[in-house]
Design brief:
This protein is an alpha/beta fold. It contains ten helices and 15 strands.
Amino acid sequence: MLSIAERHKYILEKLEKFGFIRITDVAEELGVTKVTIRKDVKILESKGLLYKVHGSARLANPHIADRDLTTKSSLNREAKRRIAERAAAMIEEGDSIMISAGSTAYALAEAIHEMNPPKNINVVTPFLKVSALLNEVETIQVEQLGGRVYKKSFATRGENACLTLGDMVCSKFFVGVDGFDPDFGITTSTIEETHLSRRMMAAASKTIVIADSSKFGQHGFGRITAIDEVDVVITDTDISPEMVKIIEEAGIELITV
C-alpha cells in the first residue's frame, strides 16, 4: 500500500496531467477507500495545492466570473474556429436551429456565413451580432428573441426573450457555455442567461454544446442542466482523457476537432 506522501504525489501528478480528478476514480486506482482520498485532498487543499469541489478536485478555482464578449472572443480563437466549422457542418436543409450568445456561438455564425449554407434555414437567437450577420444570408430566416439587451454579451435576456419560445420547435440548439462540470452540469455566468438557455433547450430536439477545452472542469454561477441532458459535445483535441471518459460514460456523443 502506498504511503501518504506517495498518494499525495500520485494525486498531484494526475492533476498536473489532466487538470481534474474524481475522488472515486483515484480511490479505485490506488486500492484505498474514498474516505482516505478525501482526507488526502483536504490536506493538499489546506496547502494551496489544489481546489476541492464535492467529489472531485482541480488544480485551480473552477468558478468563472462573467466577462465581456471582447475578452471572451480573444481566447482560444483557433479552437473556436474549428469547433464552429464542425458544428456548421451538422446543419441540414430545412433545419430550424437555435444559437445561444457567446464567442463560440458567434464563431458558429461566422462559419455558417462563410460556407454555402443549406437552403431554408431558420435561426432563432438572442444574440444581436448573430442576427445581424446571418440576416445577410439569403437562404436564412432569422428570428431575433426580444427583451433587454445585456451590454456585456450584446444579447437579450429575461422573460421577454422567452415569450415566443413556447411557439417554436427546433431541431438543434447550439449552446456555448462558461463551464462543463460533471458535478454542476453545464453553466453560464448569469442567472438570466441560464433561464433563457433552459427554455431554448426545451424548444429543441437536440442540445449541442460547443465549447473549447478550457471550459471543462469549470463552472459559472448559473446552472442550465445536468450533463446527461446534453446530446452532443463539440470541442478541441486538448480536452483531457479524464473528461473524455466522463462525457462518454454519460452517453453523450463527443466530437473533437
